[in-house]
Structure prediction request, 535 residues.
Amino acid sequence: QGLANSAYGLVRVLELSGQLPWQLNHSSSSSVSATQAGQVRLSPGSATAAAAARWLQVCLRVSVLHLPSIQPGELYGQLLWACGKLRCPAPEPAQHYILTRGQELLARCDSQQLATALYCFALLQQRPPAPWLQQFWKHVSCKLNTFQGLGLAKLLWSAAQLQLQPPEQLVTALQQRVSSQLDSKQLTEPGCVVSALHSMVGLRWKLPQRYLVKFQAAVVLQLQRFNSRDYSNMLWALATARVKVDARWLDRVLMASCPQLPSFSASDLSITLWAVAKLQHTPSRQWLLQALSSSLTQLITFQPSHFSNSLWALSKLGSVPSPLWLNTFWSTSGQTLTRFSPAELTATVSAVVKLELTPPIEWVQQVTNAVDQNLASFDSKRLLYVLQALQQLQARHISHRLRLSSSSIGVLQYGNSNGSQGYIYSNSIVPFGRLQLQPSSTPRLLYDSSRSPAATHQSVADVDAQQRAAVDVLHQLDSFASEAYSMACLVTLMPDWLQHRVAHWPKQLAADRALSSSSSRSQETQQQLLVGAAA
Prediction:
């Protein structure tokens, strides 16, 4: 009992003073994404916490001597709870003896101690042994009717963190228990209500509409007690579950969160924006302006997932931020683009294109460098999309420069066969990284004031004819490739180095051969090209 009380008291003091490892890490920076809401990555912690962890391991070794007389509350509620809070697993061989004794004590645990037992494993991010888990679910099923609000929420949260699926019959019983707790208003704490919903979604349980109605009614009664994490976790869960949410209820929730938006962390703010867009809800102008104003002060602390989630959400909501917000976004996100994952890069670039923004050419170059460095991580579909988006951004930037200046800078505008305008540029339209387009036999049209308008028009017509011939050939390939290569500029100016690096994309070889051949290519050559591409 002395060992258990000492361990609990020491860790409780550290927790109240904010010196636990996860508290220090969460206060400095959060790296939670929309697909990982509610999970916290841990830092090594302070020197005080490290010293406490070493002291606790000594306590655990000594506690092996007292295991025959230890009580469930002392083992799970104090010793192992302290291990979880410090993220300090028990050392071997003490861990083996402690878990063996802990399995024997499960039969003597009440509902609160059972919930705490699994909670300790969740804090340690350590899955329990199979025999222990089997006995645990058995006793939870027997004592399920005694689980109350906090214990029930803690049990579900722990199972979601460890991705432990209870037996099928117990899943149904747990859902019914949550429903009965909502009916009797036993889930009185905002954290309990949100945690229960968040955990059930994390476990991929289906949420019947009747549960959702009860949950909404419980939230309305507790909105004034919600904090930023409650709002973000709740909206993330609803968006991830893809349930139909009442628009008036959601407006009420968002307006209640409006005064707290300035205190939202970067993670909570980006998740909230992402969830609102995912729910296909149009928030009020007041809420959106407050969210953008709050995010402006947080942009400097944003992580890659925060940038991509926020801009993707704004594109879905059709909201173009202010020039000040955008300028800050370009400068801060550009410094972290090399750390973006392929999915985050794709989402960010697609949002910029959808919002019809014209980013600085330096930002576009930083994106191409990021794609260059992470090219091996891209699949064909994402790489196609990013290439097309970058081509549009580059062409948009060129168009913007032409509107600002009447002087030509190596660019000649031409008309496509469909009537839209495009550009042939003296370098690659997608200048990936430090590598430029290699010289090839494909003619490049540069502005020449000495040429007559008729000669210029004829040259444009010749290139147009070559591009149309190449696209006609490629249309006979599968639909995925033809959709990508129907953009004549992208096909014409595809860098040679990219064709060699994307070896799993054989259609590019066909594009290179089609465009390097002369306009007088014979029908036999075209048939050989198709045969080679099919092979």
